[in-house]
Each structure stands twice: as structure tokens, then as C-alpha cells.
Amino acid sequence: MTYENLEAIITNKNGQISLHKRFRALFTLKNLADVKSIDILAKAFKDDSALLKHELAFVLGQIKNPYAIPILNTVLADKTEDPMVRHEAAEALGAIGEPSSLNILEEYLHDEHDVVRQTCELAITKIKYENNKEIPENQKNQTSLYTSIDPAPANTKIQSVSELRDILLNTNLPLFERYRAMFTLRNLGTTDAVMILSQGLNDSSSALFRHEIAYVLGQMQNPTSVPFLIETLKNVNELSMVRHEAAEALGSIATPECLPALKEFKNDHERVVKESCEVALDMYEHENSLELQYADGLGNTVIS
Ligand SMILES: [Fe+2]
Ligand SMILES: [Fe+2]
Predict the structure, then answer these.
(1) Domain 1-137 class, CATH top level
(2) What pLDDT sits at residue 159?
(3) Is 88 within any annotated ligand binding site?
(4) Which of 53, 150, 283, 293 could bridge 85 with an S-S bond, Cβ 3.0-4.6 Å?
(5) Comparing C-alpha atoms, which of 6, 15, 83 is closest to residue 39?
């Protein structure tokens, strides 16, 4: 597929392209990961789907090229933009990890939206952590089964699952520490870890934390978490940002019981949930088909 094709698809040039096809183009561009792709991704922000735009920001962070910083700054600074999209722009700045982003992140440390404020706090802590010369390099860049750049590094110093559980669920601790426990549990990958992480879906202190738990459960693809994710998707009192992440996690786990739940909410009154179910149903089909790769032949991926 040419860049011209990809641009026409992702920007829905002819107005006829389904969201799930646009998502596949998005992940093809993510895998291409060059400056030309970043330029195309930047153009797609002129859209009215918060789901698509938050994914654009996520992908720009994962590509990890400082070339994308100006566009992410614009998205974060735009108070008319959906908080979920601004959150993802702040997180992407953290993923790119340039100390020069600290200023803008500090500016939104008191944002009116908790999810933006807390993301800026996490991104600032991550950038400072990575640039702290007193911390050994092997504690900063850890490899795991997962290829994502995470908002906090796993904490390899803690081995005990019960200690990780206590940190994860302790609402008095800084989010950065709780996230570190979250990614450590994810990397452990046991059913025990999945059960502990699933408890985090009921954490009443932070919607940001709950949405990240749902994302991590989607990455793990362990069927044990399915009933908990369905409960989150079905909870209409839950924030749409969290329900959206539960829907996409179900699309990625893709066991038979995920299908009726996704179908049930594919016309949800919250646009972001409705669109997530549409994309998740496409992922479900992909997971249950012989297609080798979701992003049109250029690598497997998990959606944010
Ligand atoms: Fe997010
Ligand atoms: Fe998301």
C-alpha cells in the first residue's frame, strides 16, 4: 500500500471508509514509523472521532520520534479537545521521553481534567526517572514480552506477588509506583497476576488507573479477566474512557463469551464506547481468523 493510499484511508478522504479499516491503516503507519508516516498521522487529527484521535496520539508516542513533539504539544494544549485525546498526547510525550517536554507537562499538572492532570504527573515522573543518573541503566530499560513503551517501568526489585498486590491497590501511593507494580504483574503473566490486576478495575480513586488496568489485561490476553472486563463494559456508570478500554481488551482476548458483550454495546449511547466495540469486533474476527497480522502485513499490535 502506498503512502497516498494510507493517507486517503486514515483521513477518510472519500467519506466511505469504516473506522476499523482506518484503524488498520493507522497501525500500518505505526509499523512504518518514519517521518512521512508521522506527517500523515498528524493530518488525521482533523477528525471528529475522539477514539481515532486518541489512538493517533498513542501511536505517535510509540513511534518515539521527537519529530512528533510539536503536534502532541498542540493536542495537549487544546482545551476544546476531548480529555481522553489530551491524556494520550501527554502520555505520548512521556513515551518519547525528551526532557524538553517537562515544561509543557508541568503547565497541565493542574488541568481541570483528572485524567490529563494525572497523566502529566506520570509522564513527568517517567522522564525524570529515565534521566536520573543515580538509577542504574538496567532498571530503566527493561525488556518484556510486550513491545509497548509503558507509562512507567516495571519494578524488577520486587519479587513477591503479595507485595506487588499491596502496592497496586494502595490508593495512598503515587500513581507512578502503582503503575510500576501493574507492569511488573503484567510481565509475570500468571493467572494470579491477572486476578490481582482485575481487582484494579474497581479502584474508585482514579479512572486513569482503571483504564490502564483494562489496557494491560488486553495485552495479556488471558481469558480469566474476561468476566471482569465484561462487567466494566456493562457498567453504564463507569467513565467511557474506561469502558472503551474494556471493550478493546475483550476484542483482543477474543474468547467466545466476548462476542455477545461487544455486540450488545456496539450501539452504545457513548460514541467512544460504540466505536470501540466496532473496532473490537474487527479485532475479534482477526483473532479468530487465519489472517496473520492485524496491521495489513506489518506486525501485530494491541490497541490503546
Ligand atoms: Fe490511555
Ligand atoms: Fe484507549
Answers:
(1) mainly alpha
(2) 80
(3) yes
(4) 53
(5) 6
From the CA of 135, how far away is ligand 2's center (Å)?
Answer: 30
Q: Provide the residue type at 55 as one letter.
A: E
235 CA distance to ligand 2 centroid (A)? 17
Alpha-carbon dihedral sign for residues 97, 98, 100, 101: negative
pLDDT at site 292: 57
* CA of residue 3 to ligand 2 center, whole Å: 25
142-304 carries CATH number 1.10.150.650: no
Helices (H) and strands (E) in the chain, counts: 17, 0
* H-assigned helices in 64-160: 69-77, 83-96, 102-107, 114-130, 137-140
Residue 141 has pLDDT above 80, yes or no: no
Higher pLDDT residue, 56 or 142?
A: 56
Q: How far is the CA of 218 from the centre of ligand 1 (A)?
A: 13
Cell of 281: 469486533
CATH 1.25.10.10 maps onto the chain at 1-137, 142-304
Asked whether the beta carbons of 265 and 296 are under 8 A apart, the reply is: no
Note the ligand closest to the C-alpha atom of 248. Answer: 2
